[in-house]
Amino acid sequence: MTQTTRTARKPRGEYAKSETTRQAILDAALEVFAESGFRAGSLREIAQRVGMSEAGLLHHFPRKSALLLAVLDHRDEAARAVVDFDLTDGAATLQGLVELAAINASMPGVVELFCTLSAEATSPAHPAHEYFQKRYIYVRSRLTDAFELLRVAGRLVEGVDPARAAVTTTALMDGLQVQWLLDPASTDMSRDLAAHFRLLVRGFDLQALEDVLDLRAGEAP
């Protein structure tokens, strides 16, 4: 190791402090964007909430668009803590989505931000266009994997195609969010998503298991 390399490295404590500051900025940016929207939310307001100058914020995120993408990734990390796409039990992954829908219902500002950005990002010129393209590809792919695991286990309802189920589930989740934002009384996102999965997966949860047992009991001689 050369002396130049040795002196160029920051002490471990500085890295930890920098990461803590970065996480605080992301949390504040998510709050501001959720309250005011991406375009109206100001970097100055975000910096004030963190207790730093706007110039200090720009040291971590040189552009507002870079901050937006980091906020979206930050939000995805929180979602992945609830939904584990690497599980070998596809039903458990779907249960995670139901749980995530319940959590989202406690954060209307964040849901509104996501819905607004995903619609605006259909324009190739939007800074989050590529992010949402990749995100939907990822979600559909991992949902397809979860439904395929259920098909192999013999739990997917006959005639249900894993790939198509992934597409319709993704569309349903987004659609439920829009309906809920327009009229919170119109839907319970978590409950209605679970009802959708019960139509696709045998014994998806306790309610679905009871329905299957009742059906079998009715078919018995």
UniProtKB/TrEMBL annotation:
GO terms for molecular function: DNA binding. The keyword Transcription regulation applies. Residues 19-79 form the HTH tetR-type domain. InterPro entries: BetI_C, Homeodomain-like_sf, HTH_TetR, Tet_transcr_reg_TetR-rel_C_sf. Keywords: DNA-binding, Repressor, Transcription, Transcription regulation. Residues 42-61 bind DNA. Gene3D superfamilies: Tetracycline Repressor, domain 2 (1.10.357.10). This is TetR family transcriptional regulator. The lineage of its organism: Bacteria, Bacillati, Actinomycetota, Actinomycetes, Micrococcales.
